[in-house]
Amino acid sequence: MTPYLLAIDNGSQSTKVTIFDARGRPVASARRRLKPYDTSVPGHAIHPGDDIWDSIRDACRAALAGFAGDPADIVAVGLCTIRFCRALLAADGSLAEPVLSWMDERVSRPYEPGNPLVRYLTTSSGYITHRLTGQFVDAAANYQGVWPIDQDTAAWSGDPAAYAATGMARDMLFDLMQLARWARATAPGSQEAMKLAKTRANLMRLWAEV
């Protein structure tokens, strides 16, 4: 088996997906543009519909269509998404409303409840990670701005005042995955490694759907 890495680079204007071989050489790639922000409300800038996910899905499908290898040999997926966004999710992890761009003035303010469908608050990476894996986890690196995070430990704050100041309850936030913990959890033969294998199979099936 020749192992490959699928890298997802989701930016403010487009999503690029590249498949690399074990030597770091690109063997297939595709890009899909994002739609213009919806700025119809003064001070608001949102990604219309489910645009971030749609661009990632379509770019992945296009890259895989140009990939001469076996998709089952893609052993890992790297994800980089737009920073400073805020995603408001329903209980099942779907969008309760469109993702707030980093340019939306609301991301620089405490969360103000207003939509009864909102169960979770996360970043763009948390939302996409859930779409890819079904897990409610995220990486701490994307949490810049108004979040109750301890910047020294890269963990959620233990100070109740931090949650009051941001308008966010702890049970609305995804669990943060620390890199060292993730490395141990995904060691060969571990339960998490088996979950990853199942996730890769799910991804291949998802991206193949019409």
Give me the number of helical elements: 5
How many strands appear in the DSSP assignment?
Answer: 10
Number of domains: 1
Strand content: 15-25%
CATH architecture: 2-Layer Sandwich
How can the largest sheet be summarized? 4 strands, mixed
Uncertain spans, ≥5 residues at pLDDT below 50? 182-186
CATH H-level name... which superfamily? ATPase, nucleotide binding domain
SSE order in H/E notation?
Answer: EEEHEEEHEEEHEHH
Question: Topology, please?
Answer:
Blueprint: E1 4-10, E2 14-21, E3 26-33, H1 51-65, E4 74-80, E5 87-89, E6 120-122, H2 124-133, E7 137-139, E8 149-150, E9 155-156, H3 160-166, E10 175-177, H4 179-185, H5 191-208
Parallel strand pairs: 1-4, 7-10
Antiparallel strand pairs: 1-2, 2-3, 5-6, 8-9
Task: Briefly summarize what is shown.
By secondary structure, this protein is α/β, with parallel strands linked by helices.
Keywords:
210 residues, alpha/beta, Nucleotidyltransferase, domain 5, four-stranded mixed sheet, 27% helix, globular
